[in-house]
Design goal:
About 70% of the residues lie in helices and about 0% in strands. By secondary structure, it is mainly α. It starts with a helix and ends with a helix.
Length: about 200
């Protein structure tokens, strides 16, 4: 009887050790998969941030000059949606973070459609102000969003921050976004005052 008990205990201990070894191995594999994914995606976001700054700073001038017909023309192509690698295990990171990353491209695609509408229907030559502002407005936000996602990945998976020296891309995007929001708020206030004035005139008549 005693030998049977010791034998059963030995089997249970052996099973537990085997399960722990398998669990530890799976955890190590998942951790490496997550780190690999994080490094790949962080590099994509770093480049995307820089591309967004280029778009936001594009003033439509080529070497300070307009086109021969006196118009402004985009000098930098919009980067579009970030493209992520296929050879990574998305299940290796948290569901919330996975959703935020994978939903990013669809948001950019929607914004690009809005920008195209502004360019084709709203903006007019020679400056195409509405187009340049709308494009800068969206891509400033996308650049900052890419930075924040990369920042979270870096913190979670111990990836060193990228050094930009004296250049501060995040500050540039924040500054441009603030200017656009202020300009839009000012226009909204001015339009509201104009509408109120017109309404008062109609009432007086």
């Amino acid at each position: 009887m005693t030998e049977a008990i010791f034998g059963l205990v030995g089997v249970l201990i052996g099973s537990a050790i085997s399960w722990l070894q398998s669990y530890w191995l799976n955890r190590q594999v998942a951790k490496k998969a997550a780190q690999y994914l994080a490094i790949r995606v962080v590099c994509i976001f770093d480049k995307y941030l820089e591309d967004c700054v280029s778009v936001v700073k594009d003033d439509g001038l080529s070497c300070g000059q307009r086109t021969p017909d006196g118009c402004l023309k985009p000098q930098v192509s919009s980067p579009g949606a970030p493209v992520f690698p296929d050879d990574v295990d998305w299940k290796s990171i948290s569901h919330n973070l996975m959703y935020e990353i994978l939903s990013f491209p669809s948001d950019v695609d929607a914004a690009d459609r809005s920008i195209a509408f502004t360019a084709d229907v709203v903006a007019s030559p020679p400056d195409y102000e509405e187009f340049f502002e709308d494009r800068a407005f969206h891509y400033a936000q996308f650049g900052l969003r890419a930075y924040e996602l990369a920042k979270r990945l870096r913190k979670t998976y111990d990836i060193p921050a990228k050094e930009y020296g004296d250049w501060k891309p995040v500050s540039e995007l924040e500054g441009e976004l603030k200017k656009i929001k202020e300009a839009r708020a000012h226009r909204g206030k001015r339009n509201a005052e104009l509408m109120a004035s017109m309404a008062q005139k109609e009432t007086a008549v």
